[in-house]
């Protein structure tokens, strides 16, 4: 594919785009996934393309929920499979959690392509493909309603990324805890999730795996402190205020 100069200031970002375009050609990502990435990039600019304190706090609480869960499930869509296949499999093993393919633009060919990507990245079992998605989330009208019985349907904690607000809302209504990774703190997903990680999945998934390992070593008192002090509205407020302050500062620096 096109040569990206080694010293190009936006080289990393361009390479990520190339990865998504290639994944689209392999039926993993949908064209709409490229648009979603573009929106994400914009918000990543606003937070300075780093995992900020508000995201770190959310990641820690999310790690705790995942480790303490009875049946944690990581929901994988096209963009996740294209951007962080190995990292998401490593995270699932560290917890341990199940991996389930669940697509907005559902199509069995894509489901199989995504499951293949995950298996090649080291996954032993991938739920949600074809007949395995035998259960229905009644509250949902998109194709995301079809889920695996032993996966999302019976999960108590679900990790979602690059999501539409409807499913997050439906899952929380079913009594599940939803951890969302979404660069846009204003999205409906961000507002409706139990825990919102305002960060790029490329940074957030490896950071979450590290926190899972840390949380497992924590004493019960430390865990209780995190649980008692976490408030997702505060986290979202911090993200929004951070962006606003940063823009203020940048305007003064001109
Ligand atoms: O693979 P499918 O069929 O399930 O389709 C996946 C897409 C992403 C096309 C579908 O879920 C969709 O249309 O999503 P939205 O409604 O565009 O929402 C995507 C959200 O993810 C937006 O709020 C973006 O800001 C955010 N986002 C985009 N790229 C990243 C991101 N968040 C974290 N990391 C990213 N790299």
Bound molecules: ligand PTJ
Total separate domains:
1
Strand content: 5-15%
Number of strands: 7
- Give the structural class: alpha/beta
Sheet with most strands: strand arrangement: 2-1-5-6-7
Largest sheet: 5 strands, parallel
Using the 3D structure, state the CATH architecture: 3-Layer(aba) Sandwich
Q: pLDDT below 50 for ≥5 consecutive residues: which ranges?
A: none
| Overall geometry | globular
Distance from N terminus to C terminus (CA atoms, Å) equals 37 Å
| H/E element sequence | HHHEHHEHEEEHEHEHHH
CATH fold title: Rossmann fold
Question: In which range does the helix fraction lie?
Answer: 40-55%
Radius of gyration, whole Å: 18 Å
What is the averaged pLDDT score?
Answer: 95
What top-tier CATH class fits best? Alpha Beta
What is the helix tally?
11
Function: Catalyzes the condensation of (R)-4-phosphopantoate and beta-alanine to 4'-phosphopantothenate in the CoA biosynthesis pathway.
Binding site for ATP: 17, 39, 182-184, 188-189, 200-201
Family: Belongs to the archaeal phosphopantothenate synthetase family.
Organism: Metallosphaera cuprina (strain Ar-4)
Overview of this structure, please?
By secondary structure, the protein is α/β, with parallel strands linked by helices. The protein has a single domain, classed as Rossmann fold, CATH 3.40.50. The protein has eleven helices and seven strands. It has helices at residues 11-25, 31-46, 53-68, 78-83, 85-94, 108-120, 165-173, 188-192, 201-216, 220-229, 232-253; strands spanning 72-76, 98-101, 135-136, 146-147, 157-161, 177-181, 195-197. The strands form two sheets. A five-stranded parallel β-sheet has the order 2-1-5-6-7, sandwiched between helices. The protein has a two-stranded antiparallel ribbon with strand order 3-4. The mean pLDDT is 95. Residues 30, 32-33, 36-37, 39-40, 43, 77-79, 103-105, 162-164, 181-184, 187, 200-201 line the site of ligand PTJ.
């Amino acid at each position: 594919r096109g040569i990206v100069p080694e010293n190009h200031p936006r080289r990393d970002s361009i390479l990520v785009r190339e990865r998504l375009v290639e994944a689209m050609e392999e039926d993993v990502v949908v064209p709409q996934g490229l648009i979603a990435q573009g929106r994400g990039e914009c918000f990543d600019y606003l937070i300075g393309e780093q995992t900020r304190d508000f995201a770190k706090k959310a990641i820690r609480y999310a790690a705790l929920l995942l480790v303490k869960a009875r049946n944690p499930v990581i929901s994988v869509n096209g963009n996740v499979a294209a951007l962080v296949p190995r990292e998401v499999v490593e995270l699932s093993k560290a917890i341990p959690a199940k991996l389930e393919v669940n697509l907005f633009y559902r199509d069995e060919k894509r489901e199989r392509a995504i499951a293949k990507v995950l298996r090649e990245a080291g996954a032993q079992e991938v739920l949600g493909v074809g007949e395995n998605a035998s259960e229905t989330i009644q509250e949902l009208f998109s194709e995301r309603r079809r889920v695996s019985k032993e996966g999302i349907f019976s999960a108590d904690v679900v990790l979602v990324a690059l999501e539409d607000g409807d499913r997050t809302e439906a899952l929380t209504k079913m009594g599940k805890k939803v951890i969302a990774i979404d660069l846009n703190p204003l999205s409906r997903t961000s507002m409706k999730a139990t825990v919102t990680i305002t960060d790029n999945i490329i940074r957030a998934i490896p950071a979450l795996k590290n926190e899972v390992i840390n949380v497992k070593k924590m004493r019960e008192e430390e865990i209780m402190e995190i649980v008692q002090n976490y408030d997702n509205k505060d986290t979202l407020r911090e993200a929004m205020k951070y962006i606003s302050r940063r823009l203020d500062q940048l305007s003064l620096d001109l």
